[in-house]
Amino acid sequence: MNIEMIRAAADRIAGHARRTPLLNAPFLDKIAGRRVWIKPECLQHTGSFKFRGAYAALSALEPTVRARGVIAFSSGNHAQGVAHAAALHSTSSVIVMPSDAPALKIANTKALGAEVVLYDRAGESREEIGDRLSAERGLTLIRPYDEPEVIAGQGTTGLEIAEDANALGIREADVIVCCGGGGLTSGIGLALEADAPGLRARPAEPEGFNDVARSLQSGRIERNARTSGNICDAIITPQPGDLTFPILSRLCGPGLIVSEDEALRAMAHAFLRLKVVAEPGGAVALAAALFRTDEIVGDDVIVTISGGNVDPAMFARALDSL
Amino acid sequence: MNIEMIRAAADRIAGHARRTPLLNAPFLDKIAGRRVWIKPECLQHTGSFKFRGAYAALSALEPTVRARGVIAFSSGNHAQGVAHAAALHSTSSVIVMPSDAPALKIANTKALGAEVVLYDRAGESREEIGDRLSAERGLTLIRPYDEPEVIAGQGTTGLEIAEDANALGIREADVIVCCGGGGLTSGIGLALEADAPGLRARPAEPEGFNDVARSLQSGRIERNARTSGNICDAIITPQPGDLTFPILSRLCGPGLIVSEDEALRAMAHAFLRLKVVAEPGGAVALAAALFRTDEIVGDDVIVTISGGNVDPAMFARALDSL
């Protein structure tokens, strides 16, 4: 895993992934007590940064391998990213989703061109289903974060942040990243190391699911006690990845932790001041910038909004938090 | 009023106004039956395209004139655009607003650095107040649309649309523009005439407030019977401008008309599929593309989302429309 892989991924996704801007708003600066710059990956295709990694991974496959199709386990943003990236490569995708996944997510994934295979969380193993389908059809598994080409794709976000920060004259700043398994955070960390060494990637996580912050503190991989029961579910994973953790450990941190209420309020501020839609997990970095100001140093802070796939009822709850 | 003024405005606003992208989403293409490209000016500074015209007008003033300050009549997007543009030019702005304007709009305009002067709609004339303040302090009036440099600033939106459409290989398409007094529509019309002559600007308006569509049809300026009582209030004006109408008449049309319900549904689709926040008046062009498909020709359609300054209650109503 190195910067050359990220640059190669950037070349492959150019013209396919959206080149998102850095947004800002004086009202947010006032709350944060410093300038806040927002990288709105909710505006990315399929509504999250996951499309970058999926497209990077698909485009790196040998064409005859890619032609046999790909498979992913996900009920969320990674599923949509893989489905859309596969369709753009004119190949097929199988997405293995739990049968109790929200109907809208299943419908969206199908509409993006994927074959959705449902499994019963209680009685079936998604890995067994995946292994069987992969063996039968020669499908390639696209992992959500512990996969070099996926990390390289997410890292292109960091190249763009570095380019824009340099253009703005920002030499030193924390770059707060919504963090699950660490694919986006580690990719951004590598990109910043190469192109904007005064910028430091820091993971943001929801309270009670701060496996990455704890792992960075202890120096070894720590697990979450549970992986559900928080509105930021899109960024909750059991533990940092085997590939991502060494990068996180070398380049990123310390972590920032926010509450569900703070994530909701950050969503409302993104609505009011930036006119973009953030999902709860996608708002934790902005929440940290707005409400954890004494844990951040410097005149500028950069945050990712990692996704915007939120249902109307949850969004209405966020608007009520103001 | 000519293309050179628009190019000069583009040079002046470069690095100050945001260069917004063209967004798209396969789900919207499916509804519309053609490719839909969205110019999200809700992502512009102050949440609407109005910042472009305000900044262009302020930056065109002779420095000693600009230093005395500017004045505008507006309770909405133009007010915020002028206030922010004045602050960026380190000069003062006076915004004359009705005393019954929403508290949030008054607060926002003040927070952007303006002096807000309230007047009583029933008993006072805002023009008299404006004339008195202008005479006393030497303020320059920035009109919302019937002002060459404002039209030039709004026209920069059209230069960007032309550039992106050319890069995408779109040679012929309707460009549907949310239309009030016609500043944005006429500016875009002029820019397209020069840089993308196969593209045609067409105004979109709310039902019952279709003064521009009727004016284009009759060939002379027609008035709205009333100027309130519609959720698309941000784009409702008494009639097309004296400067904008000849341009609209020569280059733009025919108009498209949408209902309030269609505007709300378009806001919900922008939320779900684009992850951007549109205000009702800012969603009429997208509504036309989605729900007036038989009045549009071609494989591609381009629409503006002109603004995103909507209060949470109205946005919740839009989400309920799905």
Task: Lay out the secondary structure.
The structure is a homodimer of 322-residue chains.
Chain A: H1 3-13, H2 26-32, E1 35-40, H3 50-60, H4 63-67, E2 70-73, H5 77-88, E3 93-98, H6 103-111, E4 115-119, H7 126-137, E5 140-141, H8 148-168, E6 173-178, H9 183-195, E7 199-206, H10 211-218, H11 244-251, E8 256-258, H12 260-274, H13 284-291, E9 300-305, H14 312-320
Parallel strand pairs in A: 1-9, 2-3, 2-5, 3-4, 6-7, 6-9, 7-8
Helix pairs in contact in A: 1-3, 1-8, 3-5, 3-8, 5-6, 8-9, 9-11, 12-13, 12-14
Q: Tags for this entry?
A:
homodimer; 322 residues; alpha/beta; Rossmann fold; 2 domains; 14% strand; globular; lyase (chains A, B); pyridoxal phosphate (chains A, B); serine racemase activity (chains A, B)
Describe this structure in words.
- 2 copies of one chain form a homodimer.
- Chain A has 322 residues and is an alpha/beta fold.
- The first copy, chain A, has 2 domains: 3-49 and 147-320, Rossmann fold, CATH 3.40.50; 51-141, Rossmann fold.
- Chain A is 46% helix and 14% strand.
- Chain A contains 14 helices and 9 strands.
- Chain A has helices at 3-13, 26-32, 50-60, 63-67, 77-88, 103-111, 126-137, 148-168, 183-195, 211-218, 244-251, 260-274, 284-291, 312-320, and strands spanning 35-40, 70-73, 93-98, 115-119, 140-141, 173-178, 199-206, 256-258, 300-305.
- A 5-stranded parallel sheet of chain A has the order 1-9-6-7-8, with helices on both faces.
- In chain A, helix 1 crosses helix 3, helix 3 packs across helix 5 (77-88) and helix 3 packs across helix 8.
- The first copy, chain A, starts with a helix and ends with a helix.
- At the A-B interface, helix 2, helix 12 and helix 14 of A face helix 2, helix 12 and helix 14 of B.
- Chains A, B: InterPro entries: Ser/Thr_deHydtase_PyrdxlP-BS, TrpB-like_PALP, TrpB-like_PALP_sf.
- Chains A, B: Keywords: Lyase, Magnesium, Pyridoxal phosphate.
- Chains A, B: GO terms for molecular function: ATP binding; L-serine ammonia-lyase activity; magnesium ion binding; pyridoxal phosphate binding; serine racemase activity; threonine racemase activity.
- Chains A, B: This is Threonine/serine dehydratase.
- Chains A, B: Residues 14-305 form the Tryptophan synthase beta chain-like PALP domain.
